[in-house]
Protein 1
Amino acid sequence: MHSQTVNTSSQRFLSRLVCALLLSATAAIGPLALAADPAEHPVLKRKVSLPPSADLHYNIEAKQSGLQVTGESTVKWSNANGKYSVNAETRAMLVGKILEATSEGDIDAFGLAPARFVEKRFRREASTTTFNRETHAINFTQSTETYPLKGGEQDRTSIIWQLISVARGAPDKFTNGSEWQFFVAGPRDAEQWSFKVVGREKIKTKQGEVNAVHIFRAPPPDDKSQKLDIWLAPSSDWYPVRLRFTDPDGDFIEQTLDNVSKK
């Protein structure tokens, strides 16, 4: 009986741990709500400067339903020969790899131009979001939704790197209170995201204290999904040194940079 109780507790713990870490690699903010008229999303062309290729390693700490959760995430960012790719993996203690997300495509006048976004979650079939440049449409394997492809659209993995590229292209414009909008596609649909520059803060990492630009992305007022905070380090090519996902009930997932290796 005691052994059976322990096994049940372990299974519950692992289940919660998996749920807690599923979002960390892709910066997902919960289910996307469709825009009132997604066909009208604006086309915004900005100056961009892509960061150098690098491998980044993050430690993950979280609190979910009273449980302390740990894990790690790796991000492989490549920028070469007019093309880019991002591969992010999240691993949880005792479970192993629970999520892999890949974004790849070209580099054009808007910055990153995704061609394909693939997300593979723990014990689920992979989902694919396609940015079809010939038909000028965004399509999904997980839904029948379609959106017009006008230029500048991102997916949930590329968006962080497009944000970095825009910040590097116009660092003097990333001032407190400035807002930056992007049209972002997930596994099933897409909507416009708005990021706001909060200010500059010092972040402690294993590599020392880093001065970072704090950027905040909140869900719409009537949406009780996760909030996302991102800290970018101008002194380190604007790589993200920390990401924090906060639930309405105070639970959180925090991802802090442990090591970066430039290629």
Note: The chain has two helices and 15 strands.
Protein 2
Amino acid sequence: MPEPEIDAVVFDVLGTLVDEPAGIRAGIRALDPSLDDAGTERLLSLWQQHIEREQRRILDGDRPYLPSDVLDREAAELVADTAGVGDAAAVAVLALSGRQLPPWPDTVAGLARLAERFPLIGLSNASRTALLGLNAHAGLRWHQALSAEDARTYKPDPAVYRLAVTVSGLPPERLLMVAAHAWDLRGAQSLGLRTAYVARPVGDPPTSSDRFDLHADGLAGLAGQLGTAHGLSG
């Protein structure tokens, strides 16, 4: 498949550019240092399941929209209750662990390289406040960072991807959506964006029926593929 002709690149953030489980895991260990690895992973799974379930309820119309900060606080309280930790201050710190996520090793350099050629847009389910914090913590470089909070819904609702289309002033097919989650890319495709899957250890791999424009093992590989068509410097 030939490289798509694009004018801007839109990036998912959580999982694609930052290691979200690692950040939450660190927060859980700080909450209860006595936890062993298995206990930490059980609580991490509990957190992830709560966020996924509640976002789905909002998407299905079973719950009014709430920003990610509220869902993170709920998840933190659930984890703390399960761990038997009743310290309100400790729970508050855990609730903010979603803003302290480490970037993948290739993220900062990859964004810098791609920014030489393309406008870069971050598009995240994280709230505006959370997105500001995690961008600063991870050192992410953007020309524009957009939160699903502005659409009062969550990806993969098409309204979230429409934020990037509107801000860019471009037709959807001139935007390339980059994500480690096949479900995210399918959502972008529904609005006509081009798509690039970047493999990450915590992502959602494509199925045999998925047809994405580009596949890469990391941001260097993605930049290399785009550079072939767009004259990106090495």
Note: The radius of gyration is 18 Å.
Protein 3
Amino acid sequence: MATITSLVDTTTTTNQGKPGDTVQINGTGLATTTRVNFGSTSVTPASVSATLVTFVVPSTAPCSGQVSVSVTSSAGATSNALPFFVIATPTTTGLSVTCLSAATGGSVTLFGTNFLSGSQVGVGSVGNVAVTPTQASQVTFTAPANPGQVGTVSTQAVTITTAGGTSASGTTQIDYYLAPTITSVLPTSGTAGDEITVNGTGFVGVDSVTFTDSATATALAVFTPISDTQLVATVPGGLAAGAGTITVHTCGGNSNAQTFTII
């Protein structure tokens, strides 16, 4: 009678895997095997020899959990059974942050399900990051920078790959931002309460406009976005007179410091 000694999924090199994986059944007396019993499903072997039978995990396998695997010979004799664990496909549900600086990347926590056997997180065309999740529902990783980015915002799909496969692309995304640039301010001087037009590029998702005075004290300004290349800011009070600067901040970081004089 055939005896099974081990089951090895050729993708994971363990007795765990997913539908579509090829599994090696190692043992003795396997030469007359005509079918593999994968739980209640009968599977035709892909190859048979005296010590090795291979088969493909069927699409009818359960989403996850333990399945008993045995073989049956042409004479109708069935071997012992060993357990095989079907690993569920991971899913992603969200991220701890929605955007990153293209220049630096940064720390991100990915949330979802079935992460425990995860090996890497993919960030679209930016790159892959090796991970070792300790929780089934989340993993923290450092997203790489995106130095080749051209547009102000680049949206990238975030996925995770485990023994159960790769999560669906497009369900969880993160935006990379280039830092904004100020090209001019009009007028170039003013006093508290004056409205200043700030021109530049990359004014997408602006979250603050900062005035710095001649004594390096800073104050946040009330501002109104006009377009991706222009905004209007109100000179804040409490700043010292003299030469200072204006900066604009987005998820991409701080802009250059443009000269502005407080009157």
Note: The chain has a mean pLDDT of 97.
